[in-house]
Amino acid sequence: MNNELKKTLKPVQLWAIIVGMVISGMYCGWNYALELTSPVGFIIAILVVTLFYTTFMFSYAELSTAIPHAGGPSEYASRALGKFGGFIAGFSCLVEFLFATPAIALSIGAYINFLIPSVPAVVAALVAYALFVFVNCLGIEAAAKVELIVTIVAIGGLLLFIGAGAPHIQLNNIFGGQVFKGGLGGIFSAIPFAIWFYLAVEGGAMSAEECHDPKKDVPRGFILGIATLVVLSLATFFVTAGTSESSVLSATDSPLPTALEGIYGAGILSNAMSFIGLFGLVASLHGIIIGYSRQAFAMSRSGYLPKFLSKVNSKGAPVYAIVIMSLIGMIFVLTGQTAVIIVISSFGAVALYIISMISLFILRSKQPNLNRPFKVAYPIVPGVALLVALVFLVAVTISNLSTVFWVVGAYAIAVIYYFVYSKMQISIVKEFSKGINSEIS
User: Where are the transmembrane segments (predicted)?
Assistant: First the structure.
């Protein structure tokens, strides 16, 4: 085994990984927001979140083309803020991705349980998770081909849903009733679930090192990816919310099949949507496993995590990083707390976004001559992204104080680990150097 990744990805495969990582957010998860706010309130949250992700991804394209590295955000922050900043960025990415994956796996279990009630949701979630851990161990080329297929099927499913549901939209479902339900606090509380429409889209940066020509392929994949997601997320929300009551949507783990069942009754169409919905969930599960395994691989290679995590097999897959990180994710599947897991994942994401945009500003100042094949409209676009990300941090914190303590505790443990592990590494290097010097003398 070595620690070099293979350059095999093409732009369309990168696009599939980016869209695939996120597309499960269209099929489930976002609907829990309708327990906290009205559809109108959620529209406001979605528009703010869409503004953020659009500006963020253009800014992120500059970072990822200038520094095409499997570590993505941890590498950007390390160059801008030093080793500790790189570690915090990498840890934030792992929190985002490792908590997103159990939420998606649990949703897969819910969809399978919808189709086959005799199969427990948690059991189905664990089996699906394990299956795609195995697929990822076959290497990025095989993993990317699988991701492309399931992503295309998932997009087809959303287009089918939008086509079947759009003629039955009733605007009163969106603009009637308690329009100001939850007030401003409700909109703030809904932001993590609006983020779920786009969460993990930045994960494509971790695949930049495996692209044939990252300086051209990455911006193409990023821009096409975010454009695809904006259209799909807005259309999916309007059709679902326009055809179903909020109280029904907020109480289900499978909102799209539930919406079609409300229109056409239980039967072929709702069951078909459940089956196709599995492809969307699988695309995200599979894609995010690619993302967090590359982050762990890169953090290991940079000395943040144990060295064995940066070993790859004959297929070029970081198999130890894939398996060990996935085992951690599987532990959280056993909790069954999908909504809480989504909020924790959102905390990691927001922290990552803030650090990444700060890194962009610092790198523009510290390394003005860095080769930047793609340049964002600076400083306006990254400035908007940073400002909105700070609003996200306040919103997510205020509306989820009970969960914040768990997140703060996790970061405190991570900081302690960093300083203890760093000292251990320094001691090992010193002992090794002493041994070499004594042999020479």
Answer: 12-34, 40-63, 84-108, 114-136, 148-170, 182-201, 222-243, 263-292, 317-334, 340-364, 376-398, 404-421
CATH number, domain with residue 157: 1.20.1740.10
Q: Exposure pattern of 113-150 as b/e (b: 16+ CB <10 Å)?
A: bbbeeeeebbebbbebbeebbebbbbbbbebbebbbeb
Would you put residue 316 in left (φ > 0), alpha (ψ -120 to 50) or beta? Answer: left
Q: For residue 325, what are its two tokens?
A: 């990180």
For residues 294 and 71, give the distance between their C-alpha atoms in angstroms, rounded to a whole number.
7
Residue that the structure tokens 């707390």 belong to: 337
Cβ within 8 Å of residue 428, ≥6 positions away: none
Average pLDDT, whole number, for the chain?
87
Query: Per-residue confidence at 188, pLDDT binned at 50, 70, 90?
Result: confident
Is 434 among the domain residues? no
In a domain, 46, yes or no: yes
As for how many domains the chain has, the answer is 1
DSSP, collapsed to helix, strand or coil, labels residue 178 as: coil
The residue-averaged pLDDT of 133-146 equals 85
Distances (CA, A) of 294 to 179, 299, 314, 411, 423: 43, 8, 16, 21, 25
**Which DSSP string do the residues of 366-422 spell out, in sequence order?**
H-TTS--SS---TTHHHHHHHHHHHHHHHHHHHHTHHHHHHHHHHHHHHHHHHHHHH
Digit-coded pLDDT (tens) for 28-83: 889 999 999 999 999 999 999 999 999 999 999 899 889 987 778 889 999 999 99
Gap between the Cα atoms of 73 and 88, Å rounded = 10
H-run or E-run covering 54: helix 39-66
pTM across the whole model: 0.83
Name every residue whose Cβ is closer than 8 Å to that of residue 389 and which is 6 or more positions away in sequence: 52, 56, 350, 353, 354, 357
pLDDT in tens, 376-402: 999 999 999 999 999 989 888 887 788
- Full domain range(s) for residue 152: 11-399
DSSP code for 72: T
